[in-house]
Amino acid sequence: MPSLSIPLVGFDASGGTRVITQVANCLVANGWDVEIVVPSYKATASFPLDKRIVLKVVPISGRWQMFRYLLWLAFNATQGADVCMATYYLTPYPIFFANLLRGWRSHLVYFIQHYEPLSQVQTKSAPRLIKRMLYLFACSTYWLPFRQVAVSSWIKDQIGRQSIMVLPNGIDTSIFYADNQPASATVIGAVGRLGPTKGFPIFLEAIQPLLGQVPIHVLSDASVLAPDGVKHIQPTDPASVGVFYRACTLFVFTSTLEGFGLPPLEAMACGAAVITTDCGGVRQYATEENSIIVPVDDAPAIQSAIERLLADPDLVARLRANGLATAARFSLDHTCQAYREFFAGVVQ
After folding, report:
1. Average confidence score pLDDT of the chain
2. Which domains does the chain have, with CATH numbers?
């Protein structure tokens, strides 16, 4: 079977890394030889890896760690791989040059989970000229000779290339599933995430009038502080995230920019009625039939949507039923089959 190399800038606990792990696990289960390459300073896997996946840790120490690691990739990224997959805007050029040095022996794939000229560049705190240069650099990576696959049509539209294959993310239905009956007590839930595009302060602003009136649960790690009147829940494993969603009657998603946005879809699968901002990739599955969609950065609109659902149990039931039907079309099994078919086409 063919071999796949996935050079990462390092492991983290992001949804993007989780999806990359799922791709690797799906392909190795189908007989592929899969290697994930990471620098030593970010080499601890954040999500379960199939034991058949080879984890190659590149020793990097001293100053300019990222630069030195990218330079190493420029000479070695495609070594021995039938397919080499970029997953972040800093890796396509090193992968391209490594393949050039090897005489174009590898097939190149760019797995795109966000429009990174916006998500990674415009959100940085940097001088305007530097940001402009990085923006142009990120845009240029989309014109390298890679087979491109994106997780949403929104990303494809932002890049503007009709040749991009769209393979939406999938959800693990062994973790994200609904109880037979929704919870008897009304609970408002959200994921507390830091970062300039996550919109968590907007959620906190929107719920201020509701504190003490309705149970409010926030799923987050210890770095996120929940105010008085909000129950702070720290996930212990993937299964605990499903438990959190199943406890939610309403789930509120306040991101300002998403390439796909898994949490609202996971919440739908667990039977919550969803309120989401119109933040880009959520339109791959979010419609007026299965969710309430509000503008980004609009706390009054979110508050109004919450109050509307609290006053209308019939609307909650309708959104819940339509959300469950939507989530059923995005199973991880279906997505894995799409991955297998796409990568089989790459090496043909």
Report:
1. 94
2. 3-170+332-347 (3.40.50.2000), 188-328 (3.40.50.2000)
